[in-house]
Amino acid sequence: IMKGFCENLMDDLLRRMEQYANNLESLVEEKTEQLSMEKRRTEELLYQVLPRPVAQQLLAGEMVQPEQFECVTIYFSDIVGFTALCATSRPMEVVDFLNDLYSTFDRIIGFYDVYKVETIGDAYMVVSGLPERNGHDHAREIGLMSLAVLDAVKSFTIKHKPDQQLKIRIG
């Protein structure tokens, strides 16, 4: 009887240890997948806020050396009457409007040798000639891009104020 009891006890212990090991493996797999997802999200965010070459260097663990650029062209634009527009609009209308407008701008800049630096409120900032040098083409690229933006603004409709013509300042 004792021999059968010991065998059952050993079988039970082995079964429990196997279950525990399987649970640990599942937990490790789950945590590894979560870590992998977070890493991808972090990399995507890095690529959104930094120029691609800088992000690649950082992700490779390399030191990013500061560079000096002799000649670049910077583009700024803002929306004429943005404060008044906000005062007569609901917050989500403003968010949707800016999202539509900046999505339009983002599509346009994809055709030019430019880099979007940032958008803050109604301000949109783009540069050409960095982070990749393009010789003397930077002014032409910004100029052509600016004309394309102006052309798009002429036909842009503010969804919650379709009768209002959008105007922007560029400098």
UniProtKB/TrEMBL annotation:
<dbReference type="GO" id="GO:0007168">
    <property type="term" value="P:receptor guanylyl cyclase signaling pathway"/>
</dbReference>
<keyword id="KW-0547">Nucleotide-binding</keyword>
<dbReference type="GO" id="GO:0001653">
    <property type="term" value="F:peptide receptor activity"/>
</dbReference>
<dbReference type="GO" id="GO:0000166">
    <property type="term" value="F:nucleotide binding"/>
</dbReference>
<dbReference type="InterPro" id="IPR029787">
    <property type="entry name" value="Nucleotide_cyclase"/>
</dbReference>
<dbReference type="InterPro" id="IPR001054">
    <property type="entry name" value="A/G_cyclase"/>
</dbReference>
<feature type="domain" description="Guanylate cyclase">
    <location>
        <begin position="73"/>
        <end position="171"/>
    </location>
</feature>
<dbReference type="InterPro" id="IPR050401">
    <property type="entry name" value="Cyclic_nucleotide_synthase"/>
</dbReference>
<keyword id="KW-0675">Receptor</keyword>
<dbReference type="GO" id="GO:0004016">
    <property type="term" value="F:adenylate cyclase activity"/>
</dbReference>
<keyword id="KW-1133">Transmembrane helix</keyword>
<keyword id="KW-0812">Transmembrane</keyword>
<keyword id="KW-0141">cGMP biosynthesis</keyword>
<dbReference type="Pfam" id="PF00211">
    <property type="entry name" value="Guanylate_cyc"/>
</dbReference>
<dbReference type="GO" id="GO:0035556">
    <property type="term" value="P:intracellular signal transduction"/>
</dbReference>
<protein>
    <recommendedName>
        <fullName>guanylate cyclase</fullName>
        <ecNumber>4.6.1.2</ecNumber>
    </recommendedName>
</protein>
<keyword id="KW-0325">Glycoprotein</keyword>
<dbReference type="GO" id="GO:0004383">
    <property type="term" value="F:guanylate cyclase activity"/>
</dbReference>
<dbReference type="Pfam" id="PF07701">
    <property type="entry name" value="HNOBA"/>
</dbReference>
<keyword id="KW-0472">Membrane</keyword>
<dbReference type="InterPro" id="IPR011645">
    <property type="entry name" value="HNOB_dom_associated"/>
</dbReference>
<keyword id="KW-0456">Lyase</keyword>
<keyword id="KW-0732">Signal</keyword>
<keyword id="KW-0175">Coiled coil</keyword>
<feature type="coiled-coil region">
    <location>
        <begin position="10"/>
        <end position="41"/>
    </location>
</feature>
<dbReference type="GO" id="GO:0005886">
    <property type="term" value="C:plasma membrane"/>
</dbReference>
